[in-house]
Design a protein that fits this description.
The complex is a heterotrimer of chains A (307), B (252) and C (294). With 307 residues, chain A is mainly α. Chain A folds into 2 domains: 2-275, ABC transporter involved in vitamin B12 uptake, BtuC (Orthogonal Bundle), CATH 1.10.3470; 281-307. Chain A has 14 helices and no strands. In chain A, helix 3 (40-57) packs across helix 10. Chain B is of the alpha/beta class and 252 residues long. Chain B folds into 2 domains: 2-77 and 168-247, P-loop containing nucleotide triphosphate hydrolases (Rossmann fold), CATH 3.40.50; 88-152, no CATH class. Chain C is mainly alpha-helical. Chain C has a domain at 23-220. Helices cover 73% and strands 0% of the residues of chain C. The N and C termini of chain C lie far apart (45 Å). The chains are: A mainly alpha (307), B alpha/beta (252), C mainly alpha (294). Chains in contact: A-B, A-C. Chain A binds chain B through residues 152-153, 156-157, 159-165, 167-168, 171-172, 174-184, and chain B through 48-50, 69-71, 74-75, 79-80, 82, 86-91, 95, 98-100, 102-103, 105, 107-109, 111-113, 119, 122-123, 162, 166.
Chain lengths: 307, 252, 294
């Protein structure tokens, strides 16, 4: 911890790193199955609000809120996934962006909406103001344990029939179906798992960040989650963890360059997307890059400078 | 074993298949030939569930499958290969053979978390089955290479092995000799005959007439989506309508 | 509800939306990729226009072409940095989508650094904003100008794409890049031209939007980006005429849902529409059938 603190990583920063690693894993599941879904921020919102309302307004312990949030996110993921997952790449991306926005707007207007339905004033999500004073229940060790359990589960998943089916669907959906894989089932299960994981991350985060508002779960949160997975890479589950750590810790480590840190983050992300397609955790990608740089510098030293 | 009755497939205004009647008897090798664009691959896609007929019925051992999903058809014992090889190229040869045994497994993902007995036994069986197929198709030494990096001929054989790993009763082979030289083609013919002798039923699309003569018990000829002839390879060879259908064809 | 007034509002707002969405549609139709940095170029266009007016004290009619030129150049740089390298290695179009998100993050961050995060406005009197008199509805000169400029630019684009040799080349590349190459068309050049045009349209939309609402921040593109997505989905992805129709439809939907008293759900209605269209008519309201499913 002392070592971490010396480079600018305090305990709250560490907590955010762990949360973002879990969020990275949640989108990793869908990406690994070949589904480009940006619905994670929406499910995170559903889970977080459910969990927070359960602990703060109904006095449940953290694990009660956690299970409640995960459950509701999973329940909503099923009817959403069934129609939406029939869409392909860009169409799926746009549809899930739309879903995220609908969730955000519904949470924003939840109180007046429910009030008008039940006929008496209800205060649950507190609109654009959001909820503050959330009980501080999440400990750092909770997050560490949770991340370890999730990592173990995903590692085991990859060595199971189900995990192999996920990879097969990513590579060739039709051929996978011809191998006897129920593509619709696998895709929907993965979509639900991804939603549940995003919800869990949201509940845990709310109980140390202590305030939430609908703006936290908009399109930019969806993009951030994607960035964790893309930066780290999705060839193995280690990628999104590293991606979540790096993107969260970097602004702190670079705090001396505060005004440029957004730009630096953007440049690094773009460089990785363009020149390291497999992300940071992908030895083959680094090897290719190294070869290209060497090859280029020996022939055309000028070109290596541009771009 | 496989029965097609009045199967038609329309794409927009285009009649890709028109009232196709076809029977593939158990334990026989049936050939399907026809000029390019005659609808052969469309027919295979309709049988394997990647596409569905506009009208007509397809029965596998008495069960209607014309509306079934691909994985359900696979579970009824129908396996296929593709004209353009479609291996899971990022996976190893071994993993490709494990994937195709998917429907033979029962263990859930949950069981893999706790290393249940069933999960371990099942994984063991899958690997044993895969090992048998690797040996049979001479791929043992390549088991841990990525499928995409294999030479063309090995990829073709792996695709056959992968279809066989499904443990099917009927195999649909879509131009299995495409890109092969005569020696390799003959070798593949021997493999196909061996499968039949072991009890397999096979429907094979081919351009290579030597393979058709080597292996087929009967042949159907498809032209512009219609069956124009049906008989033994000898009968087809001398059928005038068949010769006419091929006349306009580009030389390859 | 004053229906005439709402229709007028929908028409000028629709002009801006269409103009913005045309750039999305143009890039999608020629390259088959979704450029999510388009809204960042839009925002830069607005700030370039603002800078021209405030720093250099030039009149607004000059700010629009300068903003278009600047945003167009940003469009070309965007292509060179975020798209061209991926095209060269035949990356899937989802990678290009991700890369455009990366570029958007970078452009917004640079803008934050350059212009700050506080809302900025055009100096008062840039364009007179008293409502025109003698009409049965309320409309300001800004709104009239917005509508005229949008319609002129849309007509010009339509002419360029459908009637000129360059447009022919663009359509050829859109149809089949390899065949276009065989016809001697330099597809790299066409791609850059496409990005320039898309950027210029976004730049013009940015200035007009900035004038209309007179409040500009580096994040002004976020809301429009999602609206623009709805517009092109409504019109059918990559359908240029569809984008124009879609722009007016989305604007009408928005304006009328506010007028009907449900301003809180305005965006929810728009995105629900987006969602339903994708599920039931992914080719858009005006497009022909395409393969969107796996």
């Amino acid at each position: 911890m002392e070592l971490l603190r010396s480079i600018g990583i305090s305990e709250p920063v560490l907590q955010f790193m762990l949360i973002n690693a879990i969020l990275g894993l949640s989108i990793y599941l869908t990406l690994f199955t070949g589904m480009f879904s940006l619905a994670n921020a929406g499910f995170m919102a559903i889970g977080t609000y459910t969990g927070v309302i359960l602990t703060q307004q109904f006095g449940l312990p953290l694990w009660g809120g956690l299970i409640g949030g995960m459950l509701l996110a999973g329940l909503i993921a099923l009817p959403i996934g069934l129609p939406v997952l029939r869409l392909r790449d860009i169409y799926l991306a746009i549809a899930t962006i739309g879903f995220g926005e609908i969730v955000r707007i519904l949470i924003l207007n939840f109180d007046p909406l429910v009030s008008s339905i039940v006929g008496q004033p209800i205060k649950m999500t507190y609109g654009a103001l959001g909820i503050s004073g959330i009980p501080q229940l999440t400990q750092t060790w909770h997050l560490v344990v949770f991340l370890i359990i999730i990592s173990y589960c995903i590692a085991r998943l990859h060595r199971s029939r189900f995990g192999r089916a996920m990879a097969a669907i990513r590579q060739d959906e039709q051929a996978a179906a011809n191998m006897g894989i129920n593509v619709v089932y696998v895709k929907n299960m993965v979509f639900i798992l991804s939603a549940v994981l995003a919800a869990a991350a949201g509940v845990l985060k709310a109980h140390f960040a202590r305030t939430i508002d609908p703006g936290d779960y908009g399109f930019s949160q969806a993009v951030d989650i994607l960035a964790f997975a893309v930066l780290g890479g999705t060839t193995t589950f280690v990628g999104p963890i590293v991606g979540g750590f790096v993107l969260t810790a970097m602004p702190e480590i670079l705090r001396d360059f505060k005004q440029y840190r957004g730009i630096i983050n953007g440049v690094i992300l773009l460089l990785v997307i363009v020149y390291l397609p497999g992300g940071l955790v992908n030895p083959a990608g680094w090897a290719r890059l190294w070869q290209r740089l060497r090859g280029k510098s020996s022939f055309k030293p000028v070109e290596a400078e541009t771009g | 074993m496989l029965e097609l009755r009045q199967v038609s497939r329309l794409f927009g205004g285009l009649q890709a298949l028109s009232q196709v009647d076809m029977t593939v008897p158990a334990n026989k090798i049936v050939g399907l030939i026809g000029p390019n664009g005659a609808g052969k691959t469309t027919l295979i896609n309709n049988i394997s569930g990647l596409d569905h007929p506009t009208s007509g019925t397809i029965h596998m051992n008495g069960q209607p499958i014309q509306r079934a999903a691909p994985h359900q058809i696979t579970r009824l014992g129908i396996a296929r290969t593709y004209q353009n090889i479609r291996l899971f190229s990022e996976m190893t040869v071994l993993e490709n053979l494990l994937i195709s045994q998917h429907s033979q497994g029962k263990a859930s993902a949950l069981e893999s978390l706790i290393f249940s007995g069933r999960y371990r036994r099942e994984e063991q069986t899958l690997r044993e089955n895969a090992a048998v197929l690797l040996k049979r198709f001479n791929l043992e030494h390549l088991a841990h290479l990525r499928a995409g990096t294999l030479p063309y001929g090995d990829q073709r054989r792996l695709e056959m092995a992968r279809a066989l790993a499904i443990n099917p009763r009927l195999m649909l082979l879509d131009e299995p000799t495409a890109g092969m030289n005569p020696v390799e083609t003959h070798e593949l013919g021997t493999q196909i005959l061996r499968l039949r002798d072991e009890g397999m039923t096979i429907l094979v699309i081919e351009h290579d007439m030597s393979l058709i003569h080597q292996v087929c018990d009967e042949v159907y000829v498809l032209s512009f989506g219609q069956i124009i002839a049906h008989g033994t390879p000898e009968q087809i060879k001398n059928d005038t309508t068949v010769i006419e259908a091929y006349l306009g064809r580009e030389d390859e | 509800m004053n229906v005439t007034q709402q229709i007028v509002n929908a028409i000028w707002l629709g002009g801006v939306y269409s103009l913005f969405a045309l750039g999305y549609a143009l890039v999608f139709s020629v390259l088959g990729v979704l450029n999510l940095a388009h809204s960042a170029v839009f925002m830069w266009g607005a700030f370039i226009g603002l800078t021209v007016v405030t720093r250099f004290s030039l009149p607004i009619w000059l700010a629009i072409p300068v903003a278009m030129l600047g945003a167009g150049i940003i469009g070309i740089i965007l292509d060179l940095v975020a798209f061209a390298p991926l095209r060269r290695r035949n990356a899937p179009r989802i990678s290009q989508l991700i890369s455009s998100i990366g570029a958007a993050i970078l452009l917004v961050n640079i803008a934050q650094f350059a212009f700050g995060t506080q809302p900025q406005r055009f100096p008062s009197g840039t364009i007179p904003n008293q409502a025109l008199e003698g009409l049965p509805f309320r409309i300001t000169p800004i709104q009239v100008i917005i509508l005229i400029i949008s319609l002129v630019l849309m007509a010009l684009l339509q002419y360029l794409v459908m009637r000129t040799r360059i447009g022919q080349a663009m359509r050829a590349v859109a149809f089949n890049q390899r065949v276009a190459g065989l016809l001697g068309i330099n597809s790299g050049g066409i791609f850059q031209l496409t990005f320039f045009l898309a950027g210029a349209l976004a730049g013009a939309a940015g200035v007009l939007y900035g004038l209309a609402y007179n409040s500009m921040t580096p994040f002004m593109g976020d809301g429009v980006a999602l609206k623009g997505l709805t517009v092109i989905v409504l019109g059918g992805l990559g359908n240029i005429q569809g984008a124009v129709v879609g722009g007016f439809l989305v604007a009408a939907l928005e304006v009328f849902s506010i007028a009907a008293g449900s301003s809180n759900y305005r965006d929810a209605i728009v995105f629900t529409l987006l969602f339903l269209i994708l599920l039931f008519r992914p080719q858009g309201l005006v497009g022909q059938k395409i393969e969107t499913r796996a």
